[in-house]
Write a structure and sequence with these properties.
This protein is an alpha+beta fold. The protein is built from five helices and five strands.
Length: 201
Amino acid sequence: MQCERMFRFEAAHVLPRHKGKCSREHGHSWRIVVAVSGEVEPDSQFVCDFADIKTWVQPLIDRWDHKHLNAFIKYPSSENIATYVGWYVTNTMPMSLQFRLVVRVSETENTWAVWDSSNVYDKQRIQFAPDAEWYDPQLPSVFDVPRALEEATKRVREYFQAYQDALIIQEQLTLYKQSMTTDSELKKVVEMIANDGKADE
């Protein structure tokens, strides 16, 4: 028998090595389904209490909701997120419980990545921490945690503002270039700007 519980959250991520749109920062309405399989317990007539599944998983969902997943997983593809959740739940639920654990992660309506504790390859993946790309990014050595946190928060604001400004310039220049009918026309405009607004005779 199998029992499942679904969790939903909103979060951004970026996959720099992706050759398509996912190389740009973007967000998803994520769905995670955690399923446990086992025998029905004679007294409770449960395989597993749904409340227990929530206890194991909800802290992770709360940590990720409306955040940037690259801050928590080195390379947050759906596959790596599923692996991370499988590792996290495996290490959170009591060791005495003997369940087959299946984690499904969806970033769009029609797609799923699945991690299955009964799959030999999937089980092997969680043995490669902390160097694996599904694992937590490494925090550098910090002695003064409050001060380091304050400085990091300040840098995030500054970097985000610089990123936003550069993104606006990039998108507006792209639109401007697309409005040029030919490369020669674009070259003429650039030359005119270089000559302080005076067009060549």
